[in-house]
Amino acid sequence: MAELVKTIENSTPAKKRGINRFDSPWFNPRLVIGVTMVGIVLLIGIGGPLVWDMNLVYVASSPLNLPPAWIHVAQPTPEPVAVATAAATAINTSSGGLGGSSMLDLMESTPAPGRGNPGDVGPGNPTGDPKHPLGTDDQGRDMLALIIAGAPASLKVGFIAASIGMLLGIFLGFSAGFLGGWVDAVIRTTSDVMFTVPVIAVLFVIAAFLKHLELNEMAFLLALFAWPAPTRFIRAQALTLRERGYVRMARLSGMSTMGIMFKEMMPNLLPYLAASLVGNISGAILAEASLEALGLGPTRVPTLGMTVNYAIRGTAILREMWWWWGFPILVLIFIFTGLFQIATGLDEIANPRLRGVKSQ
Amino acid sequence: MTNNVMAAAAETAYSKREIILDVKDFRIHYETPRGDVIAVNGINFYLRKGETLGLVGESGCGKTTTAMGILRLVQPPGRIVGGQVLLNGVDLASLDDDALREVRWRDIALVPQGAMNSLNPVMKIKDQIADGILAHEGRQLRGAIKERMLELLNMVGLPGRVADMYPHELSGGMKQRVCIAMAISLNPTLIVADEPTSALDVVVQRVVAQTLLDVKAKLGVSMILIGHDMGLQAQLVDRIAVMYAGNIVEIAPVKDIFEEPMHPYTQLLIASIPSIKEKKPLKITEGLTHDLRNPPPGCIFQFRCPKVMSVCRQIVPPLRELRPDHFVACHLYE
Amino acid sequence: MSEPILQIKNATKVYGGGFLSSGAQTVALQSFSLDISNKPATITTIAGESGSGKTTLANAVLGFTGLSSGQILFRGQDIAKLNRQQMLDYRRDVQAIFQDPYEVYNPFYRVKHIFDMVIGQFKLARNGNDARDLIESALKVVGLRGEEVLEKYPHQLSGGQRQRMMVARAYLLKPSLIVADEPVSMVDASLRAMILDIMLRLRDEHNISFLYITHDLSTAYQIGDQIYILYQGSIAERGETAKVIEHPKHPYVQLLIDSIPVPDPTQKWDTDIRLPSEEEMRSSVNSGCRFYPRCPRRMGRCLDAQPTLYNIEGGNHDAACFLYESLPSEQGLLERQ
Prior knowledge:
Radius of gyration of chain B: 21 Å
Distance between the termini of chain B: 41 Å
Oligomer: heterotrimer
Structural class of chain A: mainly alpha
Largest sheet of chain A: none
Strand content of chain A: under 5%
Mean pLDDT of chain A: 74
Number of helices of chain B: 10
Helix content of chain B: 25-40%
Mean pLDDT of chain B: 84
Largest interface: B-C, 49 and 45 residues
Shape of chain B: globular
Order of helices and strands of chain A: HHHHHHHHHHHHHHHHH
Order of helices and strands of chain B: HEEEHEEHEHHHEHEHEEHHEE
Largest sheet of chain B: 8 strands, mixed
Strand order of the largest sheet of chain B: 6-7-8-3-9-10-12-11
């Protein structure tokens, strides 16, 4: 009997819409892959400390300059040189204070590789040590511990920054789109102006000025620049949704403006909002990593960007200590790819037409 | 006045005219995750030279799909699964793509639903019309094209300066007439027009409808006119094919359909035409259409038919010619 | 006539022409006046082509757009000045059915949501069982059963079911007026009759008045009591539906009724009729009668001033045309005061 109730009209466009929307679109392969990738990073962050000694993130907790465990090189490099290099860098690091004067540090530390031995496979121990599977840096920090500590920290900063930006965007975007008038004019103009600001450059200046940044402060700083995109997007959506039949119906049913925004409009925007949030997270992580790589980030927590910064200071490239800068960057790429897959997956869920293109 | 005379003359003459389009056992299915939807279920009809056939039915009954199928423009997930479409003896359904492209527009022109919104907004009308001509006939003298264009615009009752305008400068009815001009630009033998006057105001609708009548009278072209407005069909077509759930249930000359509808569904359609001449009680019909993926055994109209008999639930009534040119698929007349 | 529930007084809506645009104003609705009484309930038709201002009028009555000037009074109160509680009361009394029965459902929710919303907002039921009974009784009026439809998503219902549920939703509130904005223009012929029949039943059995907005004069003729035919924002002709459609007086209304295709193949259109070219139809004039460019019976004076409503043969049949000037309308006079 249920079959009989369905009529011809259902098999025309309306039906197609229905199939796309309700035939479990959440099993989108891109979304699944992306969630898995980001999930792995989170798992490393949560589970890592349980199986790995996190004290190894501290300076001099491990031997210096170890390559990854699987590297075996016959010819050893003289130990004293490595120690001297490490010492020199350590002095630089501590004196530089990692604040605004870090550019100076960089220049000071460039002569260091002269004392090293270019051509060697890293100036550290010739052979990797299974106790430090990903090697160590030149101040005796274990790379694996750094990554276990750094990857979730980077994700966290990105998530906080993007979420605050998104919340601001939802509030401002809905206000602009729904209320219209001068509210709309002010919000729209401000967000448009914000779009023309070179964000990274401004962040450099602010971060350099603030000198000591905590991780959360960094997130708030990034959030200041993360709201214009969602604002503009949500405003546009609110403008089109406002004229929808079901929004008018809700108004006729006596629903308040807030109720209409959050009960009627938001659910239909969820996939878009999620995709936009994920996109903003990667944007925030990228900005965060750039700041830190230049030494403008928080110094207490060994984030991935911070590790890259140490690698730069320690002239890891010239000393061919590729694992020092390579692993954090690989993890960043992994995070970005995962987030990108999630964003595209959500986009495909929100726009069934994109899926149509793929299947044909 | 002249039109009435012509219509009368046409009526007596058209039954002797040659058949230019013959559709035989035509089938189109739409694939869905839960089985194929039978959109067009083995329909048969023909069209004579210079004749207008109206194709009517509710939304979703398969009339647009049929028209698109004739031109082989069915979009996936729809596909033609069987039957023949003989245009002047050539089977369009089995033509290869290149040959088919030639036939489209040159022999069959389409005025799609909402055609007026399909004009390119950044091209002048003259360029859009010329594009169609040049694409099918190759390069030709600029003067010749221009002359032909003016002739075409004149044919649909538009002034020549329309050629230099952009679509947004025209009203809905004018755009629709430009689309008709484009359809007739290659002298087709058949025009398929899908709801050519829907979404137009009633006065403009009349102007466009008359344009169609004029074009038909001047060019002697055959036409398939898809629509749901029975009033308009009464004014414009020679014969009407009534479709229900992918099947043709009745085909007859327009007069017979209105004066003596035989299939219960046609009777229902005729009875539910709102009139401005007389107030009549509203004719309510209950019942829902069956699921198109899973048609019931017997007649497809059995669930809504007020005259349903037990035989209707078992045997599919064939489309039979009960009177000259009057075909009905119903067990009532056996 | 008894106390009207809805009174529209000189409603005018002008779009555009703000401080940024250079005087490109569109008059969507001009000095429109109307009374609707519900003792007894009536179906008042507002008919017109696209751009005639009928949708603007519907939106104004529903409080979606404000007027540029004029008033809409509900039981004597200006709806532009209602506070939140009064607005809720107004919503409870004035409901609507829209043209597209798909668009009005939020695709995120099951169709039951439309009922839950009104029951929740207007506190119509104390508990779930009461609510269920209310919904069932409303669905019964439109010939549906709860278990067939309520738990479905909008796309799983047919167009007819969706539109009937919208009627049921409006009925649930037992309003005194329903604004029906082209309720049957997107449903099939067989369902059209059903919806119109429900409207008639609501009027006769439940004393609900309708403001029936349509472009289709034939359905108005079948169910309407009073009719107002709009042309470019102003009333061209008004009166009892049967009188206006059977004996149209205004040249525009005559053209409109002539253009409706007759569903009778033996009465073919007279193709020799001169139809004004479409460009003429589009153009409008700044002063005088708006129909002047299209009018087959225009006179020189039609350009001087805009005609007000003139009464035809007593009764309440009026036309805004100087052809009928000799008989000034009583109501027309009243409205000008």
